[in-house]
Design a protein that fits this description.
By secondary structure, the chain is mainly α. About 65% of the residues lie in helices and about 0% in strands. The two termini are about 20 Å apart. Bound molecules: 2-acetamido-2-deoxy-beta-D-glucopyranose (4 copies). It comes from Caenorhabditis nigoni.
């Protein structure tokens, strides 16, 4: 439900024709504004913008209903490609602004595809179990690293993609083949903002419940003898990690 709320808020935010530019996208004063020509404005307004609106509308109206429908992913994918090529190499300011909206909707749309969320969550579950049961192997499952070199380690991508290929849908394979780097960067980078629309927070909202559920399962599975003989180290470790994940995942809905 929470996920659904901020999925919608992403879409609503994107749908605003003129979003407030964040300070780092405001052009420095050595860069002159590039006005769009009449021809470019017409192209943007009549050809490209409707394509973007259609994507936002489709993502919004299908949220949560598309599970198991591989056509939905392919449709959005095709629409994103068409919208991107509509802007072609128009680089005037208004086009750039609108392309940012488009890219945000098309690049970080994981919340729109339940099959891909599910895949991501299965992997988080697998990585957590390796962390608890085979810590010596965990390194190759841990792509949540603060150094770029570690995140770009091809072995980690291979382990991840092998998992996806054998445990997820064809669309998930396609999705992560294209977006793996963006996803791992987003999850490793704690943003300054606590805004739930940040991809980082959205990924935490996929990941943390998986850790909590797995911890709960292990906690419930502790036997009387486990408790008696204090064979609870793994559960204690799991609780600690799950709790930290939840604490870091806090975000707030803003307008
Ligand atoms: C991009 O610009 C080049 C040169 O100005 C032009 O030949 C090409 O057709 C343009 N591409 C698109 C997609 O508009
Ligand atoms: C990043 O990777 C290095 C080398 O594998 C590891 O020692 C370190 O703990 C990792 N950092 C995080 C935050 O996972
Ligand atoms: C597929 O998922 C199962 C269950 O999480 C896991 O044990 C297995 O290692 C995965 N396959 C690959 C190739 O990673
Ligand atoms: C659940 O508990 C049983 C008995 O203690 C143990 O054999 C089994 O491995 C446990 N399963 C998990 C997933 O921890």
């Amino acid at each position: 439900m929470l996920l659904k709320l901020f999925a919608l808020s992403v879409l609503i935010n994107c749908a605003t024709p003129y979003p407030m530019p964040s300070t780092d996208t405001i052009p420095r004063d050595d860069q002159k504004p590039k006005e769009c020509t009449v021809l470019q404005t017409a192209q943007i307004l009549f050809e490209c913008s409707p394509k973007v609106e259609n994507i936002l509308e489709l993502l919004g109206s299908n949220y949560g209903k598309a599970s198991g429908d591989p056509q939905f992913y392919q449709k959005v994918n095709t629409m994103c490609q068409q919208a991107k090529s509509c802007y072609g190499n128009i680089t005037c300011d208004d086009a750039v602004k609108r392309q940012e909206i488009l890219n945000k909707a098309c690049d970080f749309d994981i919340v729109a595809f339940p099959e891909i969320q599910e895949c991501m969550q299965k992997y988080f579950g697998k990585a957590f179990n390796v962390f608890l049961d085979n810590p010596e192997l965990y390194d190759s499952y841990n792509f949540i690293n603060n150094t770029l070199a570690e995140r770009r380690n091809p072995d980690k991508k291979r382990v991840f993609m092998t998992f996806v290929q054998s445990n997820c849908t064809a669309n998930s394979v396609d999705y992560f083949t294209k977006k793996y780097e963006k996803i791992v960067d987003a999850i490793a980078t704690q943003p300054d903002s606590h805004d739930c629309r940040e991809v980082h927070h959205q990924l935490n909202y996929l990941r943390c419940p998986v850790l909590v559920a797995e911890t709960h399962r292990r906690y419930n599975n502790l036997s009387f003898l486990d408790r008696l003989f204090r064979r609870t180290q793994k559960v204690v470790k799991a609780l600690d990690v799950a709790k930290k994940c939840m604490n870091n995942a806090k975000c707030i809905m803003t307008d």
